[in-house]
Design a protein that fits this description.
Mean pLDDT: 79
GO cellular component, one term: membrane
InterPro entries: RDD (IPR010432)
Radius of gyration: 18 Å
Strand order of the largest sheet: 1-2
Distance between the termini: 44 Å
Protein name: RDD domain-containing protein
Low-confidence stretches: none
Membrane topology: Multi-pass membrane protein
Subcellular location: Membrane
Number of domains: 1
Helix content: 55-70%
Number of strands: 2
C-alpha cells in the first residue's frame, strides 16, 4: 500500500492536485475531465520512462525487432488505459472526483453507480476531444454517461487519499470479476489496435 500511495500521491502528483487551474473554473465538468486525464498521465509517466528505456537498446521500428519495440510501447499505454477505465470503481469517485466533490451515480436511481457502470462510462475516456464537445452541449452528461446510464452529481469534497482505504478493503465480488474481464478485453483490443497502427508498411 505504501508503494501505491507513493505512485498515486507523491509530491509531484499532490502539487498537481492542489493547483487551482483558474482557466478551467468556468466549467466544472470540463475541468474534471481534463484534470482526470492529466492526473492519470502523472501516475503513468514513471512507468513510461522506465519501460521506454529498453527501446533505445533494442533498436528502431524499421529493424526485425520491431515486434519487441511495439510490445514495449504498448505496455505503458495499456497501464494508462487500465487506470483510466477503472478510476471510478471505488465508490463512484476517482481521486479527482473526491477533490472536486463529484460522484458517479446511476442516472435513473441517483444511487452510487455499480463498478460495471463506472467502467462502461470510461470506455470513451481516450476520446476526450469528443467528450469535451458533448460536455459543451450537455454539461450534465458526457458520451460515456449516455452509454452507461450514469450521471455525475455534486457531493461534499473529500480527501483524495481516502481512496487508498477503499482499495485496501476491496473485495473481489461478482461485480469486480466482471469489471476485471471487461478491462482485460478492452486492453487486448487496445493492444491489437495499437499494433496495427504502429505496424510499418
Amino acid at each position: 500500500m505504501k508503494i501505491l500511495k507513493f505512485l498515486m500521491f507523491n509530491r509531484f502528483v499532490r502539487l498537481y492536485l492542489n493547483s487551482d487551474f483558474y482557466f478551467l473554473q468556468w466549467n466544472k465538468r470540463i475541468k474534471s475531465t481534463i484534470l482526470e486525464m492529466w492526473y492519470t498521465l502523472s501516475i503513468f509517466f514513471p512507468f513510461f520512462i522506465i519501460l521506454i528505456i529498453p527501446i533505445f537498446f533494442i533498436g528502431n521500428a524499421n529493424q526485425t525487432n520491431f515486434v519487441w519495440t511495439d510490445f514495449l510501447l504498448s505496455i505503458p499505454f495499456s497501464l494508462m488505459m487500465i487506470i483510466l477505465i477503472n478510476k471510478d470503481i471505488f465508490g463512484g469517485q476517482s481521486p479527482v472526483h473526491r477533490l472536486l466533490g463529484l460522484q458517479v451515480v446511476d442516472a435513473k436511481t441517483n444511487e452510487k453507480a455499480t463498478k460495471v457502470k463506472c467502467i462502461l462510462r470510461n470506455i470513451t475516456a481516450p476520446l476526450w476531444p469528443i467528450e469535451a464537445i458533448f460536455l459543451l452541449a450537455n454539461p450534465k452528461r458526457r458520451l460515456g454517461d449516455l452509454i452507461a446510464g450514469t450521471s455525475l452529481i455534486e457531493v461534499k469534497p473529500s480527501d483524495p487519499e481516502l481512496i487508498l482505504t477503499e482499495i485496501e478493503d476491496f473485495k473481489f465480488d461478482n461485480q469486480a470479476k466482471l469489471t476485471f474481464m471487461i478491462t482485460v478485453i478492452l486492453i487486448i483490443i487496445f493492444v491489437i489496435f495499437s499494433h496495427q497502427r504502429l505496424k510499418p508498411w
